[in-house]
Amino acid sequence: MYDLLIKNALLVNASDTQKGCIAIKDGKIMAIGGDASDFSAIRELDAQGKHMLPGCVDVHVHFRDPGLTYKEDFSTGSMAAAAGGVTTVFDMPNVQPPTLNVENFLIKKQIAEEKSYVNYGIYSYLVNNLDQIDALIEAGVCGFKWDLSTFDWELPEGYYLPDNHEAADIFRKIATYDYVVSIHAEDMELVKNFTSKLRSEGRDERDFLAHVEARPDIVELSALYRAFVLSELSGCRIHITHLTSKRGLALIKEHQRRGIRVTSDVGPAWFTFNAGDYEKFGGGIRVIPAIRYKEDSDALWRSLADGGIEAVATDHAPHSNEEKFNRTWWDTLPGTIGVQTSLPILLDRVNKGEMTLERVVACMAEAPARIFGLYPRKGGIRVGMDADLVLVDMDKEWVVTHGEMYSKTKYTPYDGMWLRGKPVMTIVMGDIIMENGNIVGKPGAARMVNPKKEW
Ligand SMILES: [Zn+2]
């Protein structure tokens, strides 16, 4: 007797789509079959021919918990994820206290355990914490974030971003575990230089086009070169998160061909919007690294669609309205929400013929699971894998609104956007968490995940 039987679905993996049913017990996919009458279960659901995808894995979110919960917390953030068909999130370390040692990791872990509706990985910062790496991996971090946009004054006393001499040893240590370093690639010395130049020239403080001019693609290239050097020195795998430029993309491809172990992701904001949108949205699309020109956003999209960029990650980064809309192009806080809208945006692109549904599964589930060591427990619909699933209605037409967002921060630049295709049910470890846009489950079924696969 199974816990749950879902029949009459189109099961989509990265490699193929097949018609069938899924039998779930104890949070796992126990059987996949063509004929539902072969199985009996406590609860049966008829998918009515809709597509069932593996739950999405978003390896870049900021749920702001602990310390910044006026923007978001693990409850609201993970509800937004569940509503968007995201069943696993990796949360970033820039909370208060920041995740950079075991003590602070355990504080966040307890919060996520209590509040999260979806599975979660918890990153540690990569700072001058070489002496903590073994213990952090033992404690259960999912990976390390080398955030080159961080200023030392944002870190607790005694912590700083390491120079190459110190970073090389930390990368070597992480490489011994085959964990991955996720990198925010911006050369902040250049950003400072460009920013002060524009300001001294008297650039209008409300002209958000200056934001991209202060952070041109060359600041990404500079940081990428530095990352490739450290990866080559250490053998450590690196993952460039929120890639933003056509030239950065070409540089990554070139270094992949040379044997550097680098992968990348892109967020929907960076291929949906471009510099022409700053006039309309202002601080609403001020993110870092910057949303660039149309030739960049088009190149990112084409590469994501054809498999060159491996993954989608949102950089879901909520802020209050005051932090987003009453400030200048240089001090508006960077980030916008996105974990609830990323899968629907891609489903709409599928309906427009710009991407296949199998490719959506590849870039939103299988590839992030593989890169971050969760595969083969996550990332597909196969016997023995975790029952993290999302049922999507490819025909559902809807308009994104601020009001529908589960995030504490309601503002979304996608408000008013007409989309076709929407998640209608989300299942986390065998439990139905979201149905028709409503959160129906409870926190508790979700698990902490990491490459050790001990959940
Ligand atoms: Zn981020």
What report would you give on this structure?
- The chain has 455 residues and is of the alpha/beta class.
- The protein has 2 domains: 2-52 and 384-394 and 419-439, Urease, subunit C, domain 1, CATH 2.30.40.10; 55-371, TIM Barrel.
- It has helices at residues 74-83, 102-115, 133-139, 164-175, 188-200, 209-214, 217-234, 246-257, 268-272, 278-281, 294-306, 321-325, 342-351, 357-371; strands spanning 2-12, 17-25, 28-33, 41-46, 51-54, 56-61, 86-91, 119-125, 143-147, 180-184, 237-240, 262-266, 311-312, 389-399, 418-428, 431-435, 438-439.
- Strands 1, 2, 3, 4, 5, 14, 15, 16 and 17 form a 9-stranded mixed beta sheet that branches. An 8-stranded parallel beta sheet has the order 6-7-8-9-10-11-12-13.
- The chain is globular.
- The two termini are 24 Å apart.
- The structure holds zinc ion.
- The site of zinc ion (ZN) has 5 residues, from loops.
Keywords:
binds zinc ion; nine-stranded mixed sheet; 455 residues; 17 strands; 32% helix; single chain; 2 domains; TIM Barrel; Urease, subunit C, domain 1; eight-stranded parallel sheet
Write the layout of secondary structure elements.
Layout: E1 2-12, E2 17-25, E3 28-33, E4 41-46, E5 51-54, E6 56-61, H1 74-83, E7 86-91, H2 102-115, E8 119-125, H3 133-139, E9 143-147, H4 164-175, E10 180-184, H5 188-200, H6 209-214, H7 217-234, E11 237-240, H8 246-257, E12 262-266, H9 268-272, H10 278-281, H11 294-306, E13 311-312, H12 321-325, H13 342-351, H14 357-371, E14 389-399, E15 418-428, E16 431-435, E17 438-439
Parallel strand pairs: 1-4, 1-5, 6-7, 7-8, 8-9, 9-10, 10-11, 11-12, 12-13
Antiparallel strand pairs: 1-2, 2-3, 5-14, 14-15, 15-16, 16-17
Helix pairs in contact: 4-7, 7-8
The protein binds zinc ion.
Zinc ion is lined by residues 60, 62, 92, 315, 317.
